[in-house]
Amino acid sequence: MSLELIAVLLVISLFLLLAMGLEIAFTMAVLASIGFAFVLSYPQVQIAWSGWEVTNSFTLIALPLFIFMGQMLSLTGGIHSLFSAANKWIGILPGGLANSVIVACAVFGAMSGSSIAASATFSSIAFPEMEKRNYSPTLSFGAIAVGGTIAVLIPPSIIFIIYGSWESLSIARLFAAGMLPGIILTSLLMLTVIIWVKIKPNAAPKPESFSWGERFRALKDVIVWAALIILILGVIFGGVMTPTEASALGAFLSIIVAAGYGKFSYTALKASALSAVRVTAMVGFVMIGARLLAFLVQNAGLTDSFVKFMLSLEIGKYGTISILMVVYLILGCFFDASAMLLLTTPFVMPIITSLRLDPIWWGVVYVILAEISFVTPPFGLNLFSIHGVLPQYPITTIAKGTLPFLIPMFVTIWLLVLFPQLALWLPNVLY
Amino acid sequence: MNKIQRVLETVFKMAGQASGVVLIAIMFLILFEVITRYVLLHPFTISEEYSAYALVFIIYLGLAYTLNENGHLRITFAIKLLPVNVANWMRLFTLCIALIWTCVATVVSVRFVYDSFVRGMRAITPQLTPLGYPRIVIPIGFFLLLVGIIGAIHKTIKCIKSGLSIEDYLENKTEGNIS
Fold first, then answer.
1. Number of Cβ atoms within 10 Å of the Cβ of A313
2. For residue A90, what are the domain limits?
3. Contact status, residue A387 vs residue A125, Cβ threshold 8 Å
4. Does A276 touch chain B (CB under 8 A)?
5. For A287, which residue in chain B has the nearest alpha carbon?
6. Interface predicted TM-score (ipTM) of this complex, two decimals
7. Interface with A, mutate which of B46, B57, B61, B66 (most A CBs under 10 A)
8. A22 near B CB under 8 A
9. Does A96 fall in a domain?
């Protein structure tokens, strides 16, 4: 069988099985097993070998521990305080609460690392407040949906842990690489809110002003959270602990904080642990499937052919990145960020290395591309997450609100493409 | 059959809870290693190795639990456009594919563990841990997943018979609401 025929059959079967509703992990694993039998004539025991190699990872244990930490901290109910504190400090800007949501989401991201969790949480907390104060629903939804996406860029990011573990890259370097782009993106999103309100003054009421006393009192309410985040990031960036060790510390301290807020219980502990188990098993299974598929495509020679084909186009670095961006934006409409990453990495990483691009830098670019996919219709997960909390609003209204925010996201990506040091400067300074 | 399904769901939940307990235990193990490194100046060297084994345990024992909680990623927008009966049959078909693959995975992973013991494979660590032991969880996890898929097939058949949408059932899952 020719390589071209194998590639075509593989892609068609992949999309067919996915469209039929087979789990993503099973789809990749089933196709890989068929490939082992009929293309490579390779024993199926590779399933167990790959499964062992992928999951037997000290680095990846940070994933369930950070999820556990985020879950425990969510139970403390401090998100209200976080939102309130953000509003006291940022609320003075045009589009006050919309900007507060974006900043609060960025901080929440530093605890949970989950975009969907951030948008769902702020839909229930921030939206009623914004509705009461006559913010336009499109502005409110846009701010909540894109605010949620920052969570995956600001460390500790779950996607960075998966990517780093998969590509054997330093998670700490990836975390550091996401910091500056995260701050730039947050600033650009806030600028978009300000411009939106300047163009359409009816979109938001006049900003509120608060006394310095109120502002510092609000800070007092979130000081524990802030201290925890600074401690976790500090021990990672300071080289005191590995990200995995820091995740264990964060998980432990989240129990202490929850107990301090009087919210710790056996039920809360169980719910947080089970939530972490669910996400870890899901991601782990997708990783096993992806590793098997990667084994097939690499050993069948598909990866080499694809890389040769891409390089033969002679479109240069920017042309290749543009194509990858378009591909990811299309795939992002259908796939979860982690699944999309694992599915495409076997093909994309050889291109990235052939073009002598830094894999750490690419990780940051990928995360922002994945962020865009969270908020682009028709299947952006954050849109559905908000719709799930506020079902009375049609998905089209929610999606409409996110469109103006796509501009700062694309601007950030191109800033990173043109100035890779924006991502690489901090990790190079720290490590 | 409902009784069997309830028993199975309890087993999956217990597997999920066991993974949760391991997660908490590993949190303390890693912290203990940090303490021994910085306070006692004698790092407790096994934590890195055993944490990695713990992750294997969490993932494999979590597979069936996650399936039972409808937690594995799927794309459902296309099948939701289809008539309920067609979508239900489609789900049955995909579950059968998953069942066959999981059967293969279970059998080969039993062989994998057996080989690990027979060949006396050990971890390249100071502990020289026999690798057969941590690997045992792989066939157990796949076997539980196999049972979970059979349970899902059973639910889908019930939906086909009653004309209910399996997708709606999974999204608004409440135990025993398929009659």
1. 10
2. 23-430
3. no
4. yes
5. B59
6. 0.93
7. B66
8. yes
9. yes
